[in-house]
Amino acid sequence: MRVVIAEDLALLRDGLIRLLGAFGFEVVEAVDNGPSLLRALTTHRPDVAVVDVRLPPTFTDEGLRAALDARKEVPGLPVLVLSQHVEQLYARELLSDSRGGIGYLLKDRVSDVKVFVEAVRRVAGGGTALDPDVVAQLLTRHAREEPLQQLTPREREVLGLMAEGRSNAAIAAKLFVTEKAISKHTNSIFGKLGLPQSEDDNRRVLAVLAYLGA
Amino acid sequence: MSELLREYGRRALACFFRSVVQIVLAYAVNLPLFIVTVLSIAFIPLGFGVVLAPMMFQAIRTIANQQRVWAAEWSGVRIPVPYRAEPAKAGVFGRLKWVLTDPASWRDLLWSLLNVPAALVLGVLAGGMTLYGLEGVFVAPWVAQLTDYGWGPFWPLGEWGAVGLVGTVVLGAALTAVSVPVGPLLLKAHARFSQSLLAPTRDALAERVERLTETRSEAVDASAAELRRIERDLHDGAQARLVALSMNIGLAEEMMKHDPDTAQKLLAEAREASGTALTELRDLVRGIHPPVLAERGLDGAVRALALTLPLPVDVRIDLAGRSDAPVESAAYFAVAEMLANVVKHSAARRAWVQIEYPGDRLLMIVGDDGTGGADPAAGSGMRGIERRLAAFDGTMAVTSPVGGPTVVTMELPCALSSPRTSPSSGTG
């Protein structure tokens, strides 16, 4: 898989190159600023990009904006955004074209190497990887609302993992139950929230996120 | 030539009307207001003067402010506004004290009285000259034909026959011509008279210096306390955790060879500890200067904050640029504190935030439909915000009747820098 990396701190950039290289990714270019990132994304058309939000020259949200601009030009271009802090506002902007292939994680998540690499692969495959912190915020924000009140604690747990973008198989593995049990839960959740069922994993995640107002 | 005449006519007319306006103001407004205000002061011991007097002084201030505007517009005489800042939270007696202890109030009152003769002199001289001159040219000669219109003060009518008629017209024209340059001078003299009473005195300047000294020392104290808190948090939190972390890693390094299982456990622990340290640092950074504020400015940061609250917040922000970082930060924390209060105390179902920039200051309004009864004096959070705003000459006013709604209005004088584009998410 071909990857473009954008990170201005050399230490972290090298770390990401080494880590992704060790798991068989091919890093086609590693850049350290917004304009180069946009150019790299549109010329290489990588299978996935791993992008830091804050980049030179402005040190604001340069990386995020380059990613959004690149997706305007190359619809559905898979981008995984990393940041020192997660904001629902940014999650919303990233998810707004509802095409999937979006990841948004705290930088610290990289240290859980297996989970991180799995997230990169998921995004590359057109899936979603949303940071647990963002999901937790979404759920607390809506906790008082009627349909969510009707969910059992277990269902709420499953809903959270689903919103992070995990497949039924991954959720089942995490909660140590069968996949069948999970799909029962998801059916019940979709019924209570009044969402249409969907066979497609990714479309299902996006429906949940749209419902939560991400 | 006709252009010049028209210009002269326009000036004379403007001057004449302005003089009339001043006379009308003096007799129809200044004088009655002066009398009623003096009476309202006399009524203070009877009780209702307590409410009435501040209202009357406010009315006088409105008139005085109008006079300040006219002085600047008509004669180019600048009269700064000298009033002390309205106390953010004042009861009936608080307002009375605020009005009565401000020397500017009493100078206003004196101006209201002295402006009566002053405006009369101005009006009679400036307006009268023009009017009388025109009468000498156009009216007096013809009226003299019809009636035995005897004399005007200058008009040589009556005994002089034709010579008198011509003389009257010439004199009238001369008087009108003279009134064109003299009128504005008289107006300016009147503006200077107003300036002498309505401008801030040296005392007011001294007072401003005193207030600045006070807010500055408060700001310095607050930031010193803040730095101490940050130092302590770093020292006891993240720093200590990182020390433990490097110990763990060192130990794991030692054990790698002869006890790989324990080494792996230690490394897993180390990773967890580093995660905790990072979370702590993140919270600390958020408290100092939220990263989203650095990235998106006040607009984006407030929107991002509104999204995280457990109730719907209607955000309306209209800012053409960004202010300086310290101001931006003070504004953000002010809004954040008020929204936190909404969540904690108000039991509101919805809240709203409105931020705009009407020319020279940030205007921030935070409201909610909760239970009301918010008291800025009771909460240390609100007091802190008030102090933080005061460091920039900002103000805060709270209206929160029992039963709601609560509306907090904050103003922060500042300049806006050039606009920066940011992707609008089209959401509030």
TrEMBL record, chain A:
SUPFAM superfamilies assigned: CheY-like
Listed Pfam families: GerE (PF00196), Response_reg (PF00072)
UniProt superkingdom: Bacteria
Entry-annotated residues carrying 4-aspartylphosphate: 52
Domain HTH luxR-type: 144-214
UniProt keyword annotations, A-Z: DNA-binding, Phosphoprotein, Transcription, Transcription regulation
InterPro entries referenced in this protein's UniProt entry, alphabetically: CheY-like_superfamily (IPR011006), NreC/VraR/RcsB-like_REC (IPR058245), Sig_transdc_resp-reg_receiver (IPR001789), Tscrpt_reg_LuxR_C (IPR000792), WalR-like (IPR039420)
GO biological process, one term: phosphorelay signal transduction system
GO MF entries: DNA binding
Response regulatory domain sequence ranges: 2-122
Phosphoprotein as UniProt keyword: yes
Keyword DNA-binding: yes
Signal sequence residues: none
Protein name, per record: DNA-binding NarL/FixJ family response regulator
Originating organism: Actinomadura coerulea
TrEMBL record, chain B:
Gene Ontology cellular component terms for the protein in this record: membrane
Domain called Putative sensor: residue spans: 21-198
Enzyme Commission number(s) from the entry: 2.7.13.3
UniProt keyword list: ATP-binding, Kinase, Membrane, Nucleotide-binding, Phosphoprotein, Transferase, Transmembrane, Transmembrane helix, Two-component regulatory system
Domain spans labelled Signal transduction histidine kinase subgroup 3 dimerisation and phosphoacceptor: 226-293
Domain of life: Bacteria
Protein name as it appears in the record: histidine kinase
